[in-house]
Amino acid sequence: MNIVQLQAFVVRVPLKRAVKHASHVRKFTDNVIVRCELADGSVGWGEGVPREYVTGESAETAFDLLEATDWKAVLHPASHFAEALTWIEALTLPQAADDDRRCRGNAARCAVELALLDAFGRSFGEPLMKAVTLLAPELAEPKAEVRYSGIVLSAKGWKARLASLGQRLYGLKQLKVKVGITGQDDAKRLSIIRRFAGKAMELRVDANEAWSAAACVERIRALEPFDIACVEQPVPHEQVADLAVIRKDVSTPIMLDESLCSMVDAERAVAEATCDLFNLRLSKCGGFLPTLRLAQFARRHHLGYQLGCQVGETGILSAAGRHFACMVSGIRALEGSFDRRLVADACTLEDLTFGRGGLAPMLPGCGLGVTVVAERIASMVTRRAVIHE
To answer: In total, how many domains does the chain have?
Structure first.
């Protein structure tokens, strides 16, 4: 089966409310979407959410990279799904000479990879999750439904009380709390959140690189009385090596996020003993297949992992995350599928928003298993191009 066309788009996705954490305040997100069409008429869609402070790419530079790629040299036909997986996994985009982490361009790669996997999955009658069975059978554990966790962003005072209690009453079992926000007392906020979320709620905290290495131990110890499960990316990436010492001085497990975007990052994390867990996110890690390999790597080295998400994902990435979550074993926490609660238009006919208790079902059907509404994407496009035909 041959690829007859690839189209790329930059879309500005409005959010229903501003999202604030220690690094950014966001009212919209610029995403990259790719459409793939095969010779038999099968159409696949993929999405990436570039973040300059994570992988060093913006939507514009990601789009430029897609336009600069020699697609005739890297795209191949396939006669079955396993054959398509083999060459799609090997797909690389042009690398910058100074990109020693091999992650600049990961959002662009994620967008095109998912579009290819969706198209070939539909053509050969296979769901995206079949990739786990074929490439990482030791991780394959199909689940009819999965449970997502909630989040408390910048809320404080009565808003923090309401957010915590509301998610507890909704039946959620896990919450992520954003900390390190300028002008806020993290210990006071966490005390309130713990009280209203309840003793049974698992709390994770995410500092988004807000603390210096020198202050990190003190900051974490101040939060440990509130029974936190882990602290995510407490220091800037430039200071990540210091976590090897910090880990010895705190009892809370450390999770890498902004410092875990590629296999190079993962290998360094293990070699330097800087973390206990990985936050895997499809867009920042380069797509479904590289993220799967990172989960394999974490398990081999006795590290935990969660599946995170990017703020402003449409239903395309939500669907890909659902396939990953419903098939990959050992995921400590699951983030995403906030669709109708966060984005103005998730771009799919299906509503992928998780329900009461954070529960959401496995997606039936081939490829991503969702119906993308092209007209909705067109209404948000700020840049477009045919990058291969």
So the answer is: 2
